[in-house]
């Protein structure tokens, strides 16, 4: 019978004297007062030190397997999240938070090509973040004895490692909880989600970098102690604890195994696959969307013939239907001495352009539709500003933080950047932005402004 690891002898921990002497010497070596050390060691918080962790599965190898998965995948979640911040054009002050000091990312013009770029990056950020939840939970379970170890540190290096662990665990739990709630519910927080999520990401990122600097050598050596092939062949009855480790992950008095390591990996992997099946439809779309029950945002299609999802109805945005009726006009500012007033009939009589473009929202859902309207660059030329440096778009929206958006030069000049009047061959419904809305390739959904009332084209200063 194949065994993952044969039972091995244990270090002498009978009365704890050996451990205490080693810890005391460690503190002397790093300059900690031995009296303070003894007092801290003798006064643990209630319950700490009395919990018996008895699972025979815990150990450096299993922890390192989960750690390796997260080491490969979490950077993708981190990078795509930071790219989402950049896509909101922080150079115009419309990314939140607007003022981040040293944590400001380099300014660059978010590209419009390929048109599905933001759909990809934000879909990866939200989708992969959800898929990794079972792995994160399993990783925390595997190291839980260390989280309750007392005293928390025996040296300066260990203290730094513990602080990084606090940032890592606290940061990732905060990001997961707030992220999941944001994609499930609409504005339920008593604080600004975007600001909190941004700072939480940096707390997690710093903890992540420091933690892997400490743990990569240990992880690499631990992964060599067992063969994944051997683990995959080992039955529950043949599953034994790993040899005693210096980190204290291996149970001193383990219980008999009730599941093999193969089974544990299968449960975690199966959970990740299940979450993927219940979420990926919001990004892929089509028939798979009906199975995306864990991403309910974007399920409201609004009223009217435009049968695809929206985040907010006209009523929720505070739109007065009287302002979108026959008296509605679009005001266009540019280098001409006087602004241009265009009603919807005039806009419909101008050269029309049709493009099939996605809308992708920060919550992770997206949809691709066929849009028809006037090119923004044609409106810029009409306003006497053929090469605008930036363009400010204002909405009739009265409720919310996104009644205005500033667009980059490359977004205005893109041949598919439109002031859309129709979608899928029909006039926009009120909930989808009637009388006119912005649609630009690869632009975050919230900046594809609906219910447009004014466009201001600006030259470079």
Automatic annotation (TrEMBL):
Keywords: Membrane, Transmembrane, Transmembrane helix. GO terms for biological process: respiratory electron transport chain. GO terms for cellular component: membrane. Residues 323-459 form the Oxidoreductase molybdopterin-binding domain. The keyword Isomerase does not apply. The keyword Transmembrane helix applies. The chain crosses the membrane at residues 61-88, 124-144, 165-185, 197-214. One of its GO terms (molecular function) is oxidoreductase activity. Residues 1-20 are annotated as: Disordered. This is Oxidoreductase molybdopterin binding domain-containing protein. It comes from Williamsia sterculiae.
């Amino acid at each position: 019978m194949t065994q993952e690891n044969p039972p091995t002898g244990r270090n002498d921990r009978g009365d704890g004297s050996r451990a205490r002497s080693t810890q005391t010497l460690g503190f002397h070596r790093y300059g900690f007062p031995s009296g303070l050390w003894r007092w801290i060691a003798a006064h643990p918080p209630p319950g700490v030190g009395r919990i018996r962790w008895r699972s025979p599965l815990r150990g450096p190898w299993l922890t390192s397997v989960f750690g390796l998965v997260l080491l490969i995948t979490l950077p993708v979640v981190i990078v795509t999240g930071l790219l989402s911040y950049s896509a909101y054009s922080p150079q115009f002050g419309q990314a939140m938070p607007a003022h981040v000091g040293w944590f400001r990312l380099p300014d660059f013009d978010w590209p419009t090509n390929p048109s599905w770029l933001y759909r990809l990056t934000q879909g990866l950020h939200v989708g992969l973040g959800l898929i990794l939840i079972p792995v994160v939970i399993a990783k925390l379970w595997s190291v839980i004895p260390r989280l309750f170890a007392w005293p928390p540190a025996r040296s300066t290096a260990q203290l730094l490692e513990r602080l990084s662990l606090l940032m890592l665990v606290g940061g990732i739990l905060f990001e997961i909880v707030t992220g999941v709630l944001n994609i499930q519910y609409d504005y339920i927080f008593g604080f600004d989600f975007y600001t909190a999520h941004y700072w939480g990401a940096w707390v997690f990122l710093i903890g992540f970098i420091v933690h892997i600097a400490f743990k990569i050598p240990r992880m690499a050596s631990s992964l060599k102690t067992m063969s994944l092939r051997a683990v995959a062949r080992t039955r529950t009855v043949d599953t034994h604890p790993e040899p005693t480790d210096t980190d204290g992950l291996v149970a001193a008095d383990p219980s008999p195994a009730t599941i093999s390591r193969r089974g544990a990996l299968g449960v975690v992997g199966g959970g990740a696959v299940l979450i993927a099946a219940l979420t990926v439809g919001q990004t892929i779309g089509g028939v798979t969307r009906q199975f995306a029950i864990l991403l309910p945002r974007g399920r409201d299609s609004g009223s009217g013939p435009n049968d695809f999802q929206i985040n907010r109805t006209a009523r929720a945005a505070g739109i007065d239907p009287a302002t979108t009726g026959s008296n509605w006009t679009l005001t266009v500012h540019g280098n001409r001495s006087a602004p241009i007033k265009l009603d919807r009939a005039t806009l419909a009589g101008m050269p029309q352009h049709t493009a099939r473009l996605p809308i992708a929202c920060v919550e992770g859902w997206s949809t691709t539709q066929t849009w028809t309207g006037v090119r923004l660059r044609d409106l810029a030329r009409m306003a006497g500003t053929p090469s605008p440096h930036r363009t400010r778009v204002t909405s009739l929206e009265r409720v919310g933080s996104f009644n205005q958006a500033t667009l980059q030069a490359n977004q205005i000049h893109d041949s598919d950047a439109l002031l859309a009047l129709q979608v899928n061959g029909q006039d926009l419904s009120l909930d989808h932005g009637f009388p006119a809305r912005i649609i630009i390739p690869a632009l975050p959904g919230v900046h594809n402004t609906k219910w447009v009332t004014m466009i201001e084209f600006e030259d470079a200063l």
